[in-house]
Amino acid sequence: MNNVQGSAQSQTSFNKVPLLIVLISGAFAAILNQTLLATALPHIMVDLNLDANTAQWLQSIFMLVNGIMIPITAFLIERFTTRRLFLTAMGLFGIGTLICAVAPGFSVLMVGRVLQASGAGIIMPLMMTILFLIYPKEKRGAAMGMFGLVIAFAPAIGPTLSGWLVDQFPWRSLFYVILPIIFIDIIVAYFILRNITEQKFPKVDALSIVLSTLGFGGLLYGFSTAGSSGWGSAEVLLSIFVGAITLTWFILRQLKLEQPILQFKVFQYKVFTITTILGMLIFIAMIGGAVILPLFMQSMLGFSALDSGLMLLPGALIMGIMSPITGKLFDKFGARWLSIVGMSILAVSTFMFTNLTVDTSFTYLAVVNAFRMFGMAMVMMPVTTAGLNQLPPGLIPHGTAMNNTMRQVAGAVGTALLVTIMTSSAIPEQGAQGMVHGVNVSFIFAGASSVLGLFLAFFIKSKKNEEEQANAMVKNAVLNKEA
């Protein structure tokens, strides 16, 4: 496509269902891959003779490379055709998965994880960009709802499937399970995927790519290791310092370049800025359930990894089922009231985790977490869609890249903060209940994050105002382009 009009025409000129299936399958494989490994780490440690700190790098390196790749995707989307970029990303992901499956040792396994992450980091923002370009505004909510179903369903089955597989088969089976999905998706994509995105052929600014890598990579690494290494360690402080300095340099450079790698102009759109911050706060609250609850169950209540996966399963399934429904509700009513109701449910249910004890039942944890996920489903995809809807077509790749990057950062920061709060607030001299006290305090922080999100939800415009503002923005963008 050589112009925005071409991409607009593509919204009605072909059957979108096969394309949606291809995109969803790729997203499913990428997200499932992220959630499978945690349960298998103890088995990998035994098989490859690794200590816990070394084995954890298999998780950390994936998140780090993934986080580095996401900000660069806006540049890649404008540089390469949709088909070439998608097939390359899935190819990298597939080769990395195969290497992980046959890896004889830790170093080769790490190479596989790096390749997996480099592909996965491109796949997610690219898919969101394609969805926004092929669907008109009035149908984007439903499309993103289907996308949200996959984002919820893959983590739902990931820990449970992983727990079962490593009990029955070698840990390598985790990667062999994903390979057929990737292989079939690549073949189908080769025949049906169209070139949707607009190629602008931006210049390669090597310094910007280096600064982006050091900036986002430094922050993600620093916050990711802070939970285990401690905030005062030289490694954490140096990483965050280098990340902050280079990221500032990167942002200032993008504002001066004619063709920036990542457009920070997206933050000129107020609704996009509000919804991006809201998405980050939701992620911090979600991390509480995904990280703190399994630690609480396994370390303090004596449940197995499989049990903790089963506890999270109902909530994730509810979030998956609700995502298409909330997507359609968004198309009809807009994001404002969905966000307010959803954030209210999320805030109340999160505070219900601030009174946990050593006698807290599996049922209580599963039911309350299910309510949290129900509230989250009402907010997650609708606010993302509402924010990106405000952007003109030319800024959508930058908006999706920025949105995904900010969530990665929020996930890393949220994990580090909540784990640190949990460990520093624990009272070991009071025994098991003293340790549980740390968990309760960490959920107070997660609840406060939800309350702040609820406050921001009131600033999201109604559907009518949203449409009027978006149309005005697009009109101004076209006039400026013509001028």
From TrEMBL:
<keyword id="KW-1133">Transmembrane helix</keyword>
<feature type="transmembrane region" description="Helical">
    <location>
        <begin position="337"/>
        <end position="358"/>
    </location>
</feature>
<dbReference type="InterPro" id="IPR036259">
    <property type="entry name" value="MFS_trans_sf"/>
</dbReference>
<keyword id="KW-1003">Cell membrane</keyword>
<feature type="transmembrane region" description="Helical">
    <location>
        <begin position="439"/>
        <end position="460"/>
    </location>
</feature>
<protein>
    <submittedName>
        <fullName>MFS transporter</fullName>
    </submittedName>
</protein>
<feature type="transmembrane region" description="Helical">
    <location>
        <begin position="57"/>
        <end position="77"/>
    </location>
</feature>
<dbReference type="InterPro" id="IPR004638">
    <property type="entry name" value="EmrB-like"/>
</dbReference>
<keyword id="KW-0472">Membrane</keyword>
<feature type="transmembrane region" description="Helical">
    <location>
        <begin position="272"/>
        <end position="297"/>
    </location>
</feature>
<feature type="transmembrane region" description="Helical">
    <location>
        <begin position="117"/>
        <end position="135"/>
    </location>
</feature>
<feature type="transmembrane region" description="Helical">
    <location>
        <begin position="230"/>
        <end position="252"/>
    </location>
</feature>
<keyword id="KW-0813">Transport</keyword>
<feature type="transmembrane region" description="Helical">
    <location>
        <begin position="20"/>
        <end position="45"/>
    </location>
</feature>
<dbReference type="Pfam" id="PF07690">
    <property type="entry name" value="MFS_1"/>
</dbReference>
<dbReference type="GO" id="GO:0005886">
    <property type="term" value="C:plasma membrane"/>
</dbReference>
<dbReference type="GO" id="GO:0022857">
    <property type="term" value="F:transmembrane transporter activity"/>
</dbReference>
<feature type="transmembrane region" description="Helical">
    <location>
        <begin position="173"/>
        <end position="193"/>
    </location>
</feature>
<feature type="transmembrane region" description="Helical">
    <location>
        <begin position="142"/>
        <end position="161"/>
    </location>
</feature>
<feature type="domain" description="Major facilitator superfamily (MFS) profile">
    <location>
        <begin position="19"/>
        <end position="465"/>
    </location>
</feature>
<feature type="transmembrane region" description="Helical">
    <location>
        <begin position="409"/>
        <end position="427"/>
    </location>
</feature>
<dbReference type="InterPro" id="IPR011701">
    <property type="entry name" value="MFS"/>
</dbReference>
<feature type="transmembrane region" description="Helical">
    <location>
        <begin position="89"/>
        <end position="111"/>
    </location>
</feature>
<feature type="transmembrane region" description="Helical">
    <location>
        <begin position="309"/>
        <end position="330"/>
    </location>
</feature>
<feature type="transmembrane region" description="Helical">
    <location>
        <begin position="364"/>
        <end position="388"/>
    </location>
</feature>
<dbReference type="InterPro" id="IPR020846">
    <property type="entry name" value="MFS_dom"/>
</dbReference>
<keyword id="KW-0812">Transmembrane</keyword>
<feature type="transmembrane region" description="Helical">
    <location>
        <begin position="205"/>
        <end position="224"/>
    </location>
</feature>
